[in-house]
Amino acid sequence: MFDAGTCRSDSDRFLHSGAMALLFLMLLALMTTGCATTTRDSGAVFSRPDTSGLAQMLRAEIQSWLGTPHRMGGLNRRGIDCSGLVVVLYDDLFDMRLPRTTTALMRQGRRVDARHLTAGDLVFFKPAAKFHHVGIYLDQGEFVHTSTSNGVMLSRMDDDFWRQCYLTSRRLLALD
After folding, report:
1. CA 20 to 30 Å from 162, out of 93, 133, 134, 135?
2. For this structure, is 132 an active site residue?
3. Catalytic residue among 7, 70, 133, 165
4. Are 112 and 157 in contact (CB under 8 A)?
């Protein structure tokens, strides 16, 4: 018999041990790759872990954000906008303080060609009749962003819509 007040079910134990293992791996990755520092220099490029580890770290972090509704100016799980998502994730993962607007983010780091995107690069778009839009490239053609209609979600760079309104990309984290 299962008593929720005194013990955990086998599936709860499995989920808890899996979450602890993921947390341990994330901490280990952060410890072995060093810490990023912040600067106000718009040309700064910061050290980063290997790209496959970074993509996994980003994917693990965004899991709890997926589905968060869009809210202009929002910075939490009750609602967040596209630049807010970038600001929060970079602060949480790399201890980097970034400017709050998409336009200001486009002046950070250095330009990178879309053919050479790696995990953590910022991707910018100019949808017709809308403000600039930003997301974070993950890997294999996917990026995370905040959609006004679907909230935080994953999309593909090769999707017709995103391909047609792609503007530029910026690298804030250096490849070692």
Report:
1. 93
2. no
3. 133
4. no
Q: Is 70 among the catalytic positions?
A: no
Q: Which of 16, 82, 132, 165 is catalytic?
A: 82
Sequential DSSP letters for 81-118 = -HHHHHHHHHHHHH-----SSHHHHTTSSEE--GGG--
Residue 133 is among the residues annotated as catalytic for this protein = yes
Q: Is the distance from CB of 135 to CB of 141 less than 8 angstroms?
A: no
Question: pLDDT tens across 106-135, in order?
Answer: 999 999 999 999 999 999 999 987 789 999
Whether the model clears a pTM of 0.85, i.e. scores above it, the answer is: no
Dihedral angle computed from the Cα positions of residues 41, 47, 50 and 53, in that order, rounded to the nearest 10 degrees:
-80
- Active-site annotation holder among 7, 35, 116, 145: 145
**Angle at the Cα of 22 from the Cα atoms of 17 and 23, rounded to 5 degrees:** 95
Let me know how many helices (H) and strands (E) the chain has, helices first: 5, 10
Three-class DSSP category at 73: coil
- The kind and range of the H/E element at 123 are strand 122-125
